[in-house]
Amino acid sequence: MIGSLLNAHAAKPAEKLIVLGATGSVGTTALNFLEKNREIKLSAISIHSSVHKLHEIFSRFDVRNVAITDESVYDSSIEKLKRNFSHVSYFRGESGVLEMIESSDADTVLTAVVGASGIRATMTSLRLGKKIALANKETMVTAGPAICEFIKNASVKPVIIPVDSEHNALFQLIHGISENHIERMILTASGGPFRDMTPEEIQKVTLKEVLDHPTWNMGPKITVDSAGMINKGLEIIEAHHLFSIPYDMLDVLVHKRSYIHAMVKTRDGGFLMAGSSPDMVFPIAHALLFPEPVKKTHDAASDPDTWPSLEFQKVDRARYPGFSLALAAGGAGGTAPAIFNASNEIAVGRFLAGNIEFTDIPRLIEMVMEKIPVEYGTDLELFTDADLRARNLTEDQVSILMR
């Protein structure tokens, strides 16, 4: 049944919240929302290395639990932090995040970390029966079969509400329509900064150009993914698992202005669309408060008569080879998406460090996908092992490119 994995019928509004990735773009937007909606208590946060931002967070929220996932930053900062903010409990590294979640009485976890690092935190939260506001697509991409199997067999059914703007929009649409009316579910994509360039022109783009996203303000990793439409390929894989929907019922259209986030095509040929100004406060607030309505109009809200023209285009596969690779990984199933995602994370990191060119990213991914056999199963370790193998092999391939 479409959407059954999410167990949305059991959802309750968040009362006590953990924000994982509190200093990233989604985490920052979430904290801004919480500051205006004090009925939700911020119980705990995780950051990676932006310790300098903690002072400001402590001045705004009475948060008592903080995990710092960069262990070297934790070690160099902890004495000063304990001296200046002695009322806070601190947790070290990825294992510290799990410990913090285990010890918290929070009912909801917003997973806003980037990359596959969010997998174990999500699994721990699911095991504890907490509501998950999921903004970490790599979790479902890497370990979707393991997570789906866990949820199906869990004695206490956990609730997942998607936070990515496209998936949240689909979630809202399908809960307003009978399943047998749905023919296709469509995610929209801005197309990134190179949507009007030829493949030959893209060969010469710079890091600055890649990070100049035309409609969304996101972190560097997601911005790079968006420029190559890899982000949208990951979202298709995530949607497949989240909504229990076959790939042949999922599609992507380029919508440059990013006001329509998703569409559902009904069997009579009509389309239902979910839209808003391109601001992450809309899906974040919806996910945290669901099933209750958001009671206040967001500052970012605008009426449709002020919106630009709504135009849609098919995806040019020649311009976005990484998108096609992502769809191929999803179609292959098993550990293929984990291999794809891990290789992409390493390649993007190396591009941001100036070690490779933008167009090397899909080339590296394709080489790694060809070299690592796909395996099938539902054991979490199967997917984490594939993730590690792909990371190591991608690093090896980068070293060869750099010679």
Give the averaged pLDDT, no decimals. 94
Rounded Rg: 20 Å
Could you tell me the strand content as a percent range? 5-15%
Widest sheet: strand order? 4-3-2-1-5-6-7
User: Count of helical segments?
Assistant: 16
Separation, N- and C-terminal Cα atoms: 51 Å
Number of strands: 12
What's the CATH class label of the domain at 4-163?
Alpha Beta
**What's the CATH architecture of the domain at 4-163?**
3-Layer(aba) Sandwich
Q: Looking at the structure, what is the overall shape?
A: globular
Q: Quick one: CATH superfamily of the domain at 4-163? A: NAD(P)-binding Rossmann-like Domain
Helical percentage: 40-55%
Oligomeric state of the chains present here: single chain
Given helix and strand content, the structural type is: alpha/beta
Describe the sheet with the most strands: 7 strands, parallel
Order of helices and strands: EHEHEHEHEHEHEHEHHHHEEEHEHHHH
Low-confidence stretches: none
CATH fold call of the domain at 4-163: Rossmann fold
